[in-house]
Amino acid sequence: MINIKSFTFSPFSENTYVISDDTLEAVIIDPGCLAQEEKNQLKDYITENKLQVKALLQTHAHLDHVFGSAFVKRTYGVDMYLHKADEVILADVEMRCKTWGIPGYVPVTSDKELNEGDKFTFGNTTFDVVHVPGHAPGHVAFICHEHSFIIGGDCLFHRSIGRTDFPFCSFEELSNSIKTKFFTLPDHYVVYAGHMQATTIGEEKLHNPFLK
Predict the structure, then answer these.
(1) 76 pLDDT more than 90
(2) How far apart are CA 25 and CA 13, in angstroms?
(3) Residue with more model confidence, 85 or 166
(4) Predicted confidence band at 56 (pLDDT cuts at 50, 70, 90)?
(5) HEC states along the chain?
(6) Is a pLDDT exceeding 90 seen at residue 129?
(7) Which of 92, 128, 185, 199 is the most buried (most CB within 10 A)?
(8) Cβ of 178: how many Cβ atoms within 10 Å?
(9) What cofactor is needed (predicted)?
(10) Per-residue confidence (pLDDT) for residue 63, from 0 to 100
């Protein structure tokens, strides 16, 4: 049994995920909780369900995906995993928050690397790690083949794709990442994205206007 709990946090409407299985071990992916009440929501869910948080996984390090990362590391004493190519993005978050007048961010550092081909296991669950640059240079996605889903971050959305107008972005790279790493999966695989509702590989192959 797998449980996929999503929270939508911050003014950026970012999707934070807590993935757990019947062992009650869990991982937190992209904690975007910025306000204290959002952090409390996340913590209360974990406490009420008696989950044991084993790691903090980041699809990438854009500010809306790391607002709550220091909180998670401090609260649960876990390592933060990030692709090394996104370290430059993470290092810039504090300055961007100051520039844009976003209060409450606590700077954070990563502890361990995620790389193409890695397998990350907790409880009875295994994720395949794939490197999918384009929206961010070190963007990764987590594929769970046993349960046919992807935690895809800001690559592929419901009939849309991640922005490519930020520094270190590339539409060509993102399009290639989606077509070679996502669209090679079966149509029934569910994509849980960093924003908006979930979708499927089949839906996006047929209807995504950015990938025709």
Answers:
(1) yes
(2) 26
(3) 85
(4) very high
(5) CEEEEEEEECCCCEEEEEEEECCCEEEEECCCCCCHHHHHHHHHHHHHCCCEEEEEECCCCCHHHHCCHHHHHHHHCCCEEECHHHHHHHHCHHHHHHHCCCCCCCCCCCCEECCCCCEEEECCEEEEEEECCCCCCCCEEEEECCCCEEEEECCEECCEECCCCCCCCCHHHHHHHHHHHHCCCCCCCEEEECCCCCEEHHHHHHHCHHHC
(6) yes
(7) 199
(8) 26
(9) Zn(2+)
(10) 98
Rounded-to-integer distance, Cα 105 and Cα 99, Å: 12
Q: What is the pLDDT of residue 212?
A: 83
Average the pLDDT over 79-94 and give the result. 98
Tell whether the model's pLDDT for residue 166 goes beyond 90: no
> Tokens for 55?
């790691």
What is the C-alpha to C-alpha distance for residues 124 and 129, in angstroms, rounded to an integer?
A: 16
Amino acid code (one letter) for 144: C
Which tokens is 69 given? 């990362």
Nearest to 170 by CA among 197, 133, 144: 133
Structural domains of the chain ordered from first start: 2-211 (3.60.15.10)
Dig out the tokens for 185 from the structure.
């999966």
- In this structure, the number of other CB atoms found within 10 A of the CB of residue 108 comes to 24
